[in-house]
Design brief:
Length: about 270
């Protein structure tokens, strides 16, 4: 009994956070939570339903979800192979390549939008040829929204998948190779199931980042209702003319993001007890 009591006391002591850490931790928590709670406190609850089901909100929400989902699909198709190359490829200058991939994480989104314009605009390095040869113009279109969102969101997927690949046990892949499996079959039947939690985590982060993208989108795709006006852009416009509507739009984005993150995290990413 004495040993058990001593063990419980030691466990309680280990679980106690030192005051020098507890105070900054609580301040940090308040710093993150209080502004979000402020949206709920200042929400125009009396007109919430009317604004929530208005045509403008529905149009912006549908466009945001569709564009974010398409951007995430683009990131999956391109980002998973890129993550595999960074994690398993034997290339010179791989560290430089990894740094270039992560640049959009720290690059101001507006700068990313300008860069996309200079490359894919009608007079851009690649865009002028797309326009001249195929009649394709990407800026200020819905496709431009998808490209802008994919540009800023892909690093989140690549980093998550690369980390999962580095943590996966390569012996299973080696065993599959010795049994005669091709590289593609090994990747599809062995590697991909092993890194599935990392892929899901990266996909969720990528989708959430794409959903909230603003700077690159407004710079590269503009702001045309029903065409390029996503929810973040609608919030920005409403804040100048109707702050109540801006709060409602912000709450929709907040609830949508939190719902997706929490539901997928509980199902796929939670660590076992």
């Amino acid at each position: 009994m004495t040993t058990r009591s001593a063990g419980r006391r030691r466990a309680r002591r280990r679980g106690r956070l030192p005051l020098v850490l507890a105070v900054p931790a609580l301040i940090g928590l308040a710093f993150l939570v209080v502004p979000l709670a402020g949206l709920l406190v200042r929400a125009p609850w009396s007109t919430l339903a009317d604004q929530l089901f208005s045509e403008e909100v529905g149009q912006a929400l549908l466009l945001s979800v569709v564009c974010a989902s398409l951007a995430t699909l683009v990131c999956l198709v391109l980002g998973v192979p890129l993550a595999w190359l960074l994690a398993r490829g034997d290339l010179p200058g791989r560290g430089v390549l990894r740094a270039l991939v992560t640049v959009p994480l720290v690059l101001p989104p507006v700068v990313g939008g300008v860069a996309l314009l200079l490359v894919l605009g009608r007079r851009g390095i690649i865009g002028q040829h797309l326009d001249a040869w195929f009649g394709i113009s990407l800026p200020f279109t819905t496709a431009g929204v998808v490209i802008a969102e994919a540009f800023v969101a892909m690093p989140f997927l690549v980093i998550a998948v690369e980390g999962a690949l580095r943590g996966a046990d390569p012996r299973y892949e080696e065993a599959a190779a010795t049994l005669g499996a091709s590289r593609w079959l090994t990747f599809r039947r062995v590697t991909l199931p092993a890194i599935a939690p990392g892929v899901v985590a990266g996909t969720v982060l990528c989708w959430a980042r794409a959903l909230g993208e603003f700077g690159a989108t407004i710079t590269f795709a503009g702001n045309f209702p029903g065409k390029t006006t996503t929810m973040p852009l609608a919030v920005y416009l409403a804040l100048e003319t109707d702050p109540g509507a801006a709060i409602v739009l912000s709450i929709v984005l907040l609830l949508l993001s939190v719902t997706v993150l929490v539901s997928l995290r509980d199902r796929w990413i939670s660590s076992p007890a």
